[in-house]
Structures are given as C-alpha cells and as structure tokens.
Amino acid sequence: MTTEKEKIANKYFKCNKRERTAFELGIKLGSLFHQFIGSPVSEKNVEILANAMEKTTERQAYVKSAEIHINLERSKKGKKEGIFEYTTLTEDMIEAKVLVEFKSVEAVGELKYIEELNYPLMYISKLD
Amino acid sequence: MTTEKEKIANKYFKCNKRERTAFELGIKLGSLFHQFIGSPVSEKNVEILANAMEKTTERQAYVKSAEIHINLERSKKGKKEGIFEYTTLTEDMIEAKVLVEFKSVEAVGELKYIEELNYPLMYISKLD
Amino acid sequence: MTTEKEKIANKYFKCNKRERTAFELGIKLGSLFHQFIGSPVSEKNVEILANAMEKTTERQAYVKSAEIHINLERSKKGKKEGIFEYTTLTEDMIEAKVLVEFKSVEAVGELKYIEELNYPLMYISKLD
Amino acid sequence: MTTEKEKIANKYFKCNKRERTAFELGIKLGSLFHQFIGSPVSEKNVEILANAMEKTTERQAYVKSAEIHINLERSKKGKKEGIFEYTTLTEDMIEAKVLVEFKSVEAVGELKYIEELNYPLMYISKLD
Question: What is the count of residue pairs from A and C with beta carbons less than 8 Å apart?
C-alpha cells in the first residue's frame, strides 16, 4: 500500500510492532483455515489446491511467503471411504507455515494438527 | 463411486434423470460460489485461483469439466482502489461453465454477471 | 424480483420448469453446505447457528422454507474430544430440508448423512 | 480446555503473552471474515446472522465477548439493486469488536470499513 495510507492505518493500532506482527500472523492463519475448509479434494487436485492456498495467502498484507501442504493421509485414517472418490478439506489435513514481516519484525506462524492435543493448533513458532 | 453404492444413493431421488442432472448442476454452481467468495485475489494469483476452482469443481460427482474465469476488471470498475494491492473475490467477478453428466444426460450450467439484471445469474444453458 | 427482470432472467434457461426447480434446489443445498462448513459450534451456539442457516437459506430465490438441524452427536462419535470445548461444523453433522417453488412446481431437497453410504447425500425427496 | 493440555499447547509458542494475545485476536477476526463472507443477507435475516456470528466467535479459544453489526446501508450505497431482494455479505458491511483474554492480558480487536482508506481494516484498539 502507499506509505501515506499505511500511516493512516497504523494510527488505529494500540500496540507495539511485535504485537502488531503477531496480530497480522493470526489474521492470515484464521483466514486460510476458514476460507478453504470444505473444498472437495483428492489426489488429483491436492497439489493445485495447496498451491492456490499459498498464493492466495501471499496476496495479503505483510505476508512474505506461505508454504502449505494438504495431508490426505490424515483424511484416509480418520474416515471410512465414501461413495465418491474425494473428501472435503478438514482442518486436521492442513499443514501451513506463513512468514509475515511488519516494520522489520519477522514472525512465522504455523497451523498443524497436533496428535497429543487432538487439535489443529495455530501457533507462533518464531518472532523476532 | 461403486455401482452398488450408486444404486443405493439413487433410491433416495424422487425425480427423473433430467431433473436429477439439473439438480447436480445446481449443487456444483452453488458450491463453487460459496466456497471461494472472499478469497484474496490480484493479478498475481488470479490464474492459479481460477485453476484451483476448476479442478476442485471437477472432483465433485458427475462433473465432466469446468471452465472458470475471474474477471478482475469488474472489481476495478465497481470499487475504488483499496490500500493494499488486492481485492476479495466477489460473485460478480466469477464466470463459470460446468458440464455434468448423469446417466447419459448432459447439462451445461453457467454463472455469469448479467449487466441488465445487475445480478450474478446461475442458469442452465444446455440440457439434453 | 420484479416480473420484468424475472422474465429477462428466465430467457437464459434452456430447460422446462420442473428441471429449473430441481436446479434451484441444488443451488440452495450446495450453497448451504459450503457457506457454513468450518464454523465453530458447540451446544452453546448450535441452535442459533442452525437458525441463521435456515433464515439465510430462506433469503435466496424461490425458497419457501428451510429446516436445518445440526447433529452434534455425529461429531462426538467421529472424533475424540479436542482441547477446546467446541468442534467445527462438518458436512456429516448437517440435516437440512429445503422447499423451493418455481412457477407452481414445488420440490423438496434434503441433505443428510447416510450411514450405509458413509456420505452426506443431497437428494430430491419430492418434486411435483 | 484442560490445564494439562493447555500447557502442552503453550510450549509451541515462541512469544510473550501480550504477543500471544494479539495473535489469538488476529485469528478470530480473520476467521470471522472468511467464514461468513458471501452469506445471503437482507433486512429479514440480518439480526439473526449477526447474532450467529457473535455466538460462533464466542465459542473460540480465549474469546470473552464479541459484538457484531452488519451494516446493510453500506451495501445499498455501493451497489445498484439486484433482481432479488437480498445481497451477499461483503467485508465492508461487517462491524466487529472482539475481546480476548489470555493469561490476564486483555485485548480488543475491531474490524471496520474505514472510509479514508477504502478498506475494511482489522486492528487492535486496546491491549493491556
């Protein structure tokens, strides 16, 4: 965005730049999750869907890069096979790693299903 | 799907095969629309997002092919430019054409913004 | 919509009115599914989410009524308990019944998880 | 969640508790936005949709409260009237205020269309 408009936007924030970076990271992981959950997916479109998720995430503000992997195996383990040869994307299948940078602060956020928690956790794996 | 399971599924339907084909077509257009609306999009990811939408639609039951185009121009016309260099996918930007086949009945459905209606219309353009 | 605009829209359709009704029904079920999958849900918001899904479906063209039930039990059966006290809405939890009417043709469509298919089936249960 | 599992989850985070709170807030705003964009909405279901968005947000981890308003006026200003009496929810129509608390740190995040930015801004309006 333009420097001028960015300055206007920044006035709305009541936090320091590290907290802002963490906030921007959270937005991206929450967006990713809720935008694509439910998409039909099988071995035939899994690569292109993951790629589109990466490139779509990379369009958002302050994102430097995104790496996304869809783990179809998790789906196969958790569900019996349905009548059609695809499943729908569920949260436990997404493995994402997003790098954002705001005013020289870089942060990495991850989304990953954690076995011992039985939960797809979004977390900050690096912030500096 | 397996022939056996498909037979079981078919028993639930109280309609003829042309009506079934029309129904399947409607499902695909409704799904496409509501799954991807809201995705960040710009010139940099527009091709890959449209491609992922095609391949995702093609995974669904009875779809033979899908052609999808995202019209970024419509977005530019309708909105002033925001502070970041992307927009979110809106219904009037999608141009889709989906071919389904059920028991040798083929039908083509389209989603297109119709100027004189000011509305993104989903319609059956061919059924035979 | 206005009679005049509806006439313009109808010209785009190459099918009879029963097929059109089936198509409209498919759109509504596909939309419902892909719009709401992924929403956080627990006993505390299940009623209001189902109600919003009904009222949202009823806003769409040609819908006369929608009845939606979210079956949290299905979620409990299929998954171990996560670390937080909610789950995300999955397709097998939705039980929907939608009535549409187009030019005096009425049709009922349903979305229901079918045990013997291991699949959330969308089907036309009545068309006349 | 249980204290024990929460402890396990917390080990994944490489940040302080204020940054964590900011991150959790970002997740909720990103989720809200991408989950509900595209929903059909009119005066008839606007209250119940906003209410469901609030209650759904409140189910998520660390959220204490959510206030959501859908501004249909923005839609009327920006678009000509379509052929049906509803529109789809767009990002500029949502006004949200979410309060999260993590380990006694409270933060308020807002989502609001900012006229001078021509952009629906998500920001931290309070963190302490």
Answer: 40
